[in-house]
Amino acid sequence: MIQMHDVTKSFDGVPVLNGVNYTLSHGEFAFLRGRSGSGKSTFLKLLYRESEREHGTILIDGTAIDALQKFELRRKMGIIFQSYELISQHTVLENVLIAGKALGRPLEEIEAEAMRLLTRVGLADKVHQFPNKLSGGQQQRVAIVRALLNKPKLLLADEPTGNLDRETAQDIMTLLYELHREEQMAMLIVTHSEELLTSGARVSVMEGGHIDE
Ligand SMILES: Nc1ncnc2c1ncn2[C@@H]1O[C@H](COP(=O)(O)OP(=O)(O)OP(=O)(O)O)[C@@H](O)[C@H]1O
Ligand SMILES: [Mg+2]
């Protein structure tokens, strides 16, 4: 799903990623850990082309990312962040539907899929609420559903539990792991919390500009 070879990135002449190699298989579930400032978010941004690498190659789902338009690349992936990034003037359901409307999918189809997923994550009774009426954990569930609506082959998560208390964070991690199995997509989750790592899961570490298993 991800094949990265010898990728470098620096800011103002200071190298952050210094020859990163990384592979994630289709349907694989993996964590990326590393200290603050080690380059984890930078690494993710290169994958979804929020930022451009200097050297090296990146393939997503077998295709070089430069061979795709950004919207084509991002169609293959769902992305979630620490800060949820929901639109406050829109209801839960509307926030989720945005992802499907962006691809021009029929409203009936995406409404059914949104309701299925919102029910799955325990938010069936919140679909017409506004995000500011929801807890942090509930808002993150909405963001997860939005990211999954178009059935991406890959979900990228950058500190998805960083704003949550420990118990809620654990619930969200468990939910992500279950969704990875049920919806059959690869997931790469960045976290700096060791205690949240799902037992048995693959863990890579970003350190000194490299990724080590
Ligand atoms: N747009 C930018 N311009 C300049 N420097 C940047 C930029 N983005 C990141 N950096 C620098 O690159 C380094 C890695 O940042 P990055 O955000 O990738 O770290 P991180 O591992 O995600 O950290 P955290 O765990 O705190 O989120 C840091 O030193 C940061 O200051
Ligand atoms: Mg980061």
UniProtKB/TrEMBL annotation:
Residue stretches making up the ABC transporter domain: 2-213
Subcellular location: Cell membrane
InterPro entries: AAA+_ATPase, ABC_transporter-like_ATP-bd, ABC_transporter-like_CS, MacB-like_ATP-bd, MetN_ABC_transporter-like, P-loop_NTPase
A Pfam short name: ABC_tran
UniProt entry tagged with the keyword Heme: no
Gene3D superfamilies (alphabetical): P-loop containing nucleotide triphosphate hydrolases
Keyword Ribosomal protein in annotation: no
Topological relation to the membrane, as annotated: Peripheral membrane protein
Keywords: ATP-binding, Cell membrane, Membrane, Nucleotide-binding, Transport
GO annotation, cellular component aspect: plasma membrane
Family: Belongs to the ABC transporter superfamily.
The name this protein goes by in its record: ABC transporter domain-containing protein
Source species: Caryophanon tenue
